[in-house]
Amino acid sequence: MQFTLLTSILAAALVLCALPVAGGQEAGGEEIYKLQCARCHGAAGQGTKKYPQPLVGGKSPAQLAGLIGRTMPDDEDEKCTGEEAGRVAAYIHDSFYSADAIARLNPPRVELSHLTVGQYRNCVADLIGSFRPVAKVDDQRGLRGDYFSGRDVRGGAGLISRVDPEVKFDFGAAGPDGETEDGKFNPNQFSIRWDGSVLAPETGVYEFIVRSDHAVRLWVNDTKRPLIDAMVKSGTDTEYRGSILLLGGRQYSVRLEFIKGKQLDKKKLLSAKPTAASVELLWKLPRRTEEVIPARLLSPVKAAEVAVMETAFPPDDRSYGWERGTTVSREWVSATTDGALECAGYVIAHLSELAGVSDDASDRGAKLRVFCRKFAERAFRRRLSEAEKVWYVDRQFESAPDVEFAVKRIVLLVLKSPRFLYPGAMDQADGHGGGDWAVASRLALTLWDSAPDQALLDAAAAGKLKSREEISRQAERMLADPRVKVKVRGFLLAWLKLDPAPELAKDAKRFPEFDAALSADLRTSLELFLDDIVWSAASDFRQLLLSDEYFVNGRLAAFYGVEPPAGGGFAKMKLGPGGRAGVLTHPYILSSLAYAAESSPILRGVFIGKGLLGITLRPPPNAFTPLAAELHPGLTTRERITLQTSQASCVACHGVINPLGFALEEFDAVGRFRAEENGKGLDVTGFYESRAGPTVEFTGARQLGAYLAGSEEVHAAFCQQMFQHLVKQPVRAYGLDKPRQLQASFAESGHSVKKLIVAIAVTAASDASGQEAPESVGAATGR
Predict the structure, then answer these.
(1) Which of 31, 104, 430, 457 is the most buried (most CB within 10 A)?
(2) CA dihedral 494, 496, 501, 506 (to 10 degrees)
(3) Phi-psi group of 293: left, alpha or beta (phi > 0 → left; psi -120 to 50 → alpha; rest → beta)
(4) What is the structure's pLDDT at 261?
(5) Residue 74: pLDDT above 60?
(6) Count H helices, E strands: the chain?
């Protein structure tokens, strides 16, 4: 799915003609290539000194034949056309040019890889979390608020107990119920405690913010040590901040205490003049602006503490387009040691809770051994052999000076073992480590980037992961976990080229209301749009390119000229005028694919070509600077782009890019609809020469979206990119025909994204070949 066979690659090389052979028959494609092409392009299209670029790419045989017929050879008056061009194009395509041909010549394999940074943190969090109770979060949203008439937020029941959707209150000079001293609350002295949990929508450092002119204290993921403690106010401060690393897709406990009033006797409380009181709980997500924590991410159910390891790891390799744990450096080895030490310290600090035994219990030693065996089994994602029980547990207890030292040593041994760091590496090496246990491990890594939960481990222990049907049932169960939603959303943002989040800086004179807060709202709007379609009952991929309804709040409604939703929060509605087409015309994407003041058909066309259609475009030979609009004030953006890219050296790529991007010209640099530009009507016609053969023509975003939604090229690219993002391995390593099989099942499911996720997970869990642990890995610990 590449687009690298350009005119410059084949120029003056394919001197193709109908060569006679014995018996008067015409030469076949292979013979033509060997006689006339190999001298310039190599016997297997690998390139030569004259034309060093290999003949590889994503054009279909028909597209190759058309290119040859139009341009080859460029130093001859007579071109190679018709059947001759078709025969040599077919030979080139099937022998070494296409992705399938390359895979046949050099079959990919499932690569040995260690845990990525995200997988490491998730595995440790779930490993420790498996020894804690799981909170049953329901559909209720908000935090449980208990309102007290005095200053004591921890004694007795409150006068009011309810679920507040968010914490954003301005009480004025009255009490929480709006009454004065004749009501339940004295406006001079009252307190509130909010309890529950918050769902982190992505991994990163979060900044929590509490705004209040009275005493406040906030705990996040830690019931003992507050993240913010402003119970004793100093000066005129009314805003307090604290930062914490959170892993996406998990619930974290939250408690906020608010206290108004000094400790006064009843007479003074009744005679004092009430002062104003307010309180807000906000946060700032990674690379976002601050906002009141929305109700959709809050729950009144209190979650167990999550062990979030903060050890810094070197970044994962992303050179192939997805994170891979294939690089082993000194920094990575050092980080695994530091991470193991951090985890060991955490386990020791919470040992009695995790092991379920008090410090003075007579059977403490025996229970800690049981805890350590379970810890090792869950870390290795399978049962321990008798030899492993002796090495990893019994021997450490026998040689350690005390039981806590033994536990710490065991945690270090386990987390430094290749059995933990290299999932799958021991599947075949151990003999007993593969089978159902390996299936459970691969399934959890694919969907959760983590270790199996107890249900998966139980299924593996019972031998219930042997068939694709059984694995599929487990995968469908696992889809309900928020960690899947976070991982899939991460893929979708990568598919849309929005990871990491772009910085949207717009011309302040042309778009004065477009600021960081609006940009953050647009990002949230897009994420809600993606989640809404993917996790709907139909989960129809095509709606990602067809839907004309978006999530809008009051600020976005005002900017884009639609009626604001009731309540000011995000609601789904049409964003007219103009024909919208899913992600193609979502204002966040259109804004990111534009300049500060002007739209960019080139950026938008490259996004559609590379991201959605899956073609690869070579970078321009020279640095590209768009013609300034002020130099051609009478021209539309389309006219300027056409003028600048009309040279022969540009046409090969821009002949694909420009027509795709021109279809979106009804939308400006911030994604607002426009009927004209510079006093001229807009030409939004475009075309695309599909790999299937015919040239498709379209007018505007709606027609372009309809074509892309039904395009097999788009479906194939989406399936392959999703597989490689979720599994972190090349898709053809699981079978050279696997891309076509996934695409076929995708079509049969009605293009259900959820069913595609399950199909990918089943493939990764059941079709992967076991990888032997290399000597260097096994030698790391001797075990």
Answers:
(1) 457
(2) 170
(3) beta
(4) 79
(5) no
(6) 31, 18
CA dihedral sign of residues 158, 159, 164, 169: negative
Mean pLDDT value of segment 599-605: 96
Q: Answer whether residue 386 shows pLDDT above 90.
A: yes
Q: For 129-214, where are the E strands, in sequence order?
A: 143-148, 160-164, 168-172, 190-200, 204-212
Task: Name the pLDDT band for 84 (thresholds 50, 70, 90).
Answer: confident
Tokens of 431: 């003999």
Residue 626: strand, helix, or coil:
coil
In this prediction, residue 268 has a pLDDT band, given cuts at 50, 70 and 90, of low
| pLDDT(312) > 60 | yes
Length of the chain: 783
- Please state, in angstroms and as integers, the Cα–Cα distance from residue 489 to each residue in 199, 482, 528, 765, following that order: 15, 11, 10, 21
Whole-angstrom distance, CA of residue 512 vs CA of residue 506: 8
Q: How far apart are CA 644 and CA 651, in angstroms?
A: 11
Answer yes or no: are the C-beta atoms of 673 and 559 closer than 8 Å. no
**pLDDT at residue 617 in the model:** 78
Q: What is the pLDDT of residues 99-138, one digit of tens each?
A: 899 999 999 999 889 999 999 999 999 999 999 998 888 8
What backbone phi and psi angles, to 5 degrees, belong to 181?
Answer: -65, -15
Q: Would you list the DSSP string of 557-615?
A: HHHHTSPPPTTSS-EEEE--SS---GGGG-HHHHHHTB-SSSB-HHHHHHIIIIIIS--
Bridge partner residues of 573 (DSSP):
550
Q: What is the pLDDT of residues 145-193, one digit of tens each?
A: 999 988 888 766 678 899 999 999 999 988 887 654 455 788 888 999 9
Q: Diameter of the chain by CA atoms?
A: 119
Q: How many CB atoms lie within 10 A of CB 511?
A: 18
Residue in the structure block whose two tokens are 């959760």: 448
CA atoms within 13 A on the CB side of 79: 15
Average pLDDT, the chain: 88
Determine the residue type at 695: T
Q: Are 726 and 695 in contact (CB under 8 A)?
A: no
Decide if 47 contacts 4 (C-beta within 8 A). Answer: no
CA distances from 300 to 95, 135, 209, 247, 623 (A): 61, 11, 19, 20, 55
More confident residue, 744 or 424: 744
Closest CA to 31 of 41, 39, 40, 21: 21
Angle at 570 between CA 565 and CA 575, to 5 degrees: 65
State mean pLDDT over 536-558.
97
Q: Distances in Å between the alpha carbon of 528 and those of 515, 565, 670?
A: 20, 15, 19
Which has the closest alpha carbon to 488: 551, 420, 544? Answer: 544
The radius of gyration of the chain from alpha carbons, rounded to an integer in Å, stands at 31
Two structure tokens written together for 145: 């608020």
Read off the tokens for 639: 């006219």
